[in-house]
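Intended use. Records like the one below are meant for learning the mapping from a protein sequence to its folded structure. Do not use them to infer anything beyond what is encoded.
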Amino acid sequence: MDAYSIYWIKEEVAAHYFHKSNLLYHFFKDYRNDLSNDILQKQFNYITRSFPRSHLISHIKNYYNKTFMLQFNGSQLIIHQKKTYISLHMDEKQLKFRCNSLQDAEEILFPMLRSFHSNLFITGRNVNNFGWISPVITSNHGNESEQVLYSFL
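Structure written out for the chain above:
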């Protein structure tokens, strides 16, 4: 299963770094590889927002209603429907999820997250995928194609 992390980026940072997502990706990768680095920790805390767990759980329950099976176990949530299965772990500053394919996440998890907030940035933990969950609505970059999630090779 592929593993991913989702971060809620503060609005002013998201506006400045939306078209520089490779910098955010490398920052999160460096941060994960050196959690004891005080400077990276301060930068991480500065650019990310905390996920309000009770609000997020309420949003998840309302969004999925009765169309999916949900199993809560503390900070972990299992979402499944037929053969599709996503495991979501909620930490204060990141959501970690596992899925069989990114297509499963796009069909099941991402629509719910887009309705929660648009400034969510996703990085692959064991794959080099990263990107924003939603495109920016207004852009100063003309008609560039909007990026959602892509592979960094």
